[in-house]
């Protein structure tokens, strides 16, 4: 119900902010941006699970109007896969199901902000699956060089892709 900051345990200059969900009972969507001073943040990760909602569109439009970047992360995709496979075991097609989730998110955001949005499908329990590595790589590629080094140093060794990104950055870094 309140904005919480989390300093990275190793890199005190890196702060993550966890903001309350837009549209929650204590925060009217129309007052959300002013309440949390969106100008203060470098970029945004809009997290959603289960369904894409109108509030996600409003949030994306508002962030875009401030000329800030945002990434849309659709979480709990592993659960969607499991439930879909349980409901329709004979007709289940994981690739088509994931494509459908992605298209709903992309098309809804495209109508709102008139650009190709960054949409990632992830699972906290299976970070090696789906788009988690792509999300990490996208963050790295889009950060300014002075922030990229700090980001890569702070990146946990949660996947082989993350480790490779760190090795490449550290071996090409100027001493």
What's the gist of this structure?
The chain is α/β, with parallel strands linked by helices and 175 residues long.
Characterize the structure shown.
The chain has one domain (4-142): 3-Layer(aba) Sandwich (Rossmann fold). Strand 1 and strand 2 form a beta hairpin. By secondary structure, the protein is an alpha/beta fold. Strands 3-4-5 form a three-stranded parallel β-sheet, sandwiched between helices. A two-stranded antiparallel ribbon has the order 1-2. The model has no long low-confidence stretch (mean pLDDT 81). It has helices at residues 32-35, 54-65, 77-87, 94-113, 132-142, 145-154, 160-172, and strands at 4-7, 15-18, 43-49, 69-75, 118-121. Helix 2 crosses helix 4. It is globular, with a radius of gyration of 18 Å. Belongs to the TRAFAC class dynamin-like GTPase superfamily. IRG family. Residues 1-142 form the IRG-type G domain. This is IRG-type G domain-containing protein. Pfam families: IIGP. Keywords: GTP-binding, Hydrolase, Nucleotide-binding.
């Amino acid at each position: 119900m309140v904005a919480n900051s989390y300093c990275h345990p190793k890199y005190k200059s890196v702060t993550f902010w966890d903001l309350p969900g837009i549209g929650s009972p204590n925060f009217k969507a129309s007052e959300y941006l002013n309440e949390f001073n969106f100008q203060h943040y470098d970029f945004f990760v809009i997290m959603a699970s289960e369904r894409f909602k109108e509030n996600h569109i409003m949030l994306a439009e508002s962030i875009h109007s401030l000329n800030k970047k945002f990434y849309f992360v659709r979480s709990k995709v592993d659960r969607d896969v499991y439930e879909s496979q349980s409901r329709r075991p004979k007709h289940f097609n994981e690739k088509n199901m994931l494509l459908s989730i992605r298209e709903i998110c992309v098309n809804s955001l495209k109508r709102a902000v008139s650009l190709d949005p960054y949409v990632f499908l992830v699972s906290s329990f299976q970070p090696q699956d789906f788009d988690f590595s792509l999300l990490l790589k996208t963050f790295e590629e889009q950060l300014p060089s002075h922030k990229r080094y700090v980001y890569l140093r702070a990146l946990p060794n949660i996947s082989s892709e993350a480790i490779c990104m760190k090795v490449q950055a550290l071996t090409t870094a100027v001493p």
